[in-house]
Amino acid sequence: xxxxxxxxxxxxxxxxxxxxxxxxxxxxxxxxxxxxxxxxxxxxxxxxxxxxxxxxxxxxxxxxxxxxxxxxxxxxxxxxxxxxxxxxxxxxxxxxxxxxxxxxxxxxxxxxxxxxxxxxxxxxxxxxxx
Length: 130
Description:
The protein is mainly alpha-helical. The protein has helices at residues 2-15, 30-53, 64-78, 80-89, 93-124.
């Protein structure tokens, strides 16, 4: 987790350098942005660990929904770090539209897949409510 999260945090501004002339946040809110950036990088590290080690918990005969749910959880963990950095350096509406499509819509689709898998598992275990 830390093996990927710490480098992600340290490399964020190297991979996505600030645009020349881009406004800087006021000093009182700068710690908020740093903390969120650190959390997103840590979550990225959790996502890397999930992809590397989590697959073994899927049954060998996993359904397509189980596999899609695994991918959806992985994407939900991994996507925050690049997502936020792209937001930070994108200053035009075409780029923002690309972020909306590439990240927001895929995260919406991911949560729908996870919810469908969760409902299927609840029904299979007989725990669909009373």
